[in-house]
Amino acid sequence: MSYFDVASTTPLHPVARQALIAALDEGWADPARLYRSGRQARMLLDAARRTVAEELGARPDEVSFTTGGTQAVQLGMLGALRGRRRTGRHLVHSAVEHSSVLHTAERHEADGGELTSVGVDRLGRVDAARFAAAVRPDTALAVLQSANHEVGTVQPVAEVAALLAAAGPDRVPLLVDAAQSAGRLPVPAGWSLLAASAHKWGGPAGVGVLAVRKGVRFNSPLPVDEREGGRVPGYPNVPAIVAAAASLRAVRAEARERDAHLRALVERIRARVPQLVPEVEVVGDPVHRLPHLVTFSCLYVDGEVLLSELDRAGFAVSSGSSCTSSTLTPSHVLAAMGVLTEGNVRLSLPLDVTSAEVDRFLAVLPDLVATVRAPLGLELAVAAPPAAARQAPLVIDALGKRCPLPVIELAKRIGEVAPGDPVVVLADDEAARLDIPAWCEMRGQAYEGEAPAADFGADRGSAYLVRRTS
């Protein structure tokens, strides 16, 4: 099996395994106790904290260990918001943040706070000036990820931080979610709070990092505990923390050596997939991106089916498609970018990936996509009639059909109308609102907006207006 999903979780690094086994014997005691075994555990914990702080560009006393990246984000956001409550209750974040940010923001709003979600371009990148302009006098916190977890786009964190700092001494603190980049890229400058997750870089699951700069007003939303600087209550898992620190240092050294290799392989995938598979869009910023991650979307493909076929072929990959989610809601990242949300495949390559593995993936992908598309009958599209033959729009009833069937029905039948003629797609699947415009842009057709489905005799859903241009 070729494991191409390290953005979800990374297998335990050999250095982490060795450190974990050693620390289980040497660091099992309570590091808060003064007897010998407790002092020994404390020495290991302090050494791990210094290592992590050095790799992240922080002071040791600014670093606290959490139970994971999600907890680090949640505590960081809630603690900063609470610490700056006198300033105001306004929160700014990008539209493509991890769900841990969005869920915490929802909680903040439900408790009476205000939110501003800043949009991104089609590459998934936020405009730094636009992000900074969203800050108000009552803004308590801004949140911006270092790199996107679905498409790999790296955000202009340092530029945003500089703009926020220029606002004056009482600058709005910037929390950076570095879960996807920590251990792979240098930590961007200018952060006020930083969150990271050990299992993303090859450390054990269950260890996260929350770093809070000196001078940032922070008030933990949880009852105060004497451990971890009062930011994170509970007993620290010293052996796991030691393993996380050891692997972070090892992975950073390896990443510097393997960066060119990974970038070259990702460039090969980005270039070759559209050549090998028709009707594919590679998404994410081609330049400002993580070195190991690439995402593409295939028209007329059920993402879950394609992932299952790839699994049978020996490739573990993931997807942001709504079809692979139990909620059947489109990926908020892909939706914010305005790209196709269906048939989405994300590859995130491990440090030890080989060229042969990537070549084998490229060799099997075209046939697998063709196999998934074959039952859909796309070859049944007919030639266009003369321009004067149609007096009314072609109405395609896709009500009750879920991803990616509304787009497939449009693709199959748009050939029934002449160039310049309208087509109306009736659909009640939320993904259609995103995917039909994305399909039009990919295929060079004109998307003309949305209308009430009742205008075309339907009792539910929406009507999506398309005009054939080619």
The neighbouring-strand order within the major sheet is 2-8-7-6-5-3-4
What is the helix content?
Answer: 25-40%
Strand content: 15-25%
The span between the termini is 43 Å
Structural class: alpha/beta
Mind summarizing the main beta sheet? 7 strands, mixed
Q: What's the overall geometry?
A: globular
Poorly predicted runs = 322-327, 380-390
- The pLDDT mean sits at 91
Please tally the helical runs, counting DSSP H or I stretches of 4 or more residues.
12
Radius of gyration: 25 Å
Q: Tell me the total number of β-strands.
A: 16
Encode the helix/strand succession as letters: EHHEHEHEHEHEEEHEEHEHEHEHEHEE
Would you kindly provide a written description of the structure presented here, covering whatever features stand out?
Helix content is 36%, strand content 16%. The two termini are 43 Å apart. The strands form four sheets. It has a seven-stranded mixed beta sheet with strand order 2-8-7-6-5-3-4, sandwiched between helices. Strands 13-14-16-15 form a four-stranded mixed beta sheet, covered by helices on one side. α1 packs antiparallel against α7 and α7 packs across α10. It has twelve helices and 16 strands. With 470 residues, the chain is an alpha/beta fold.
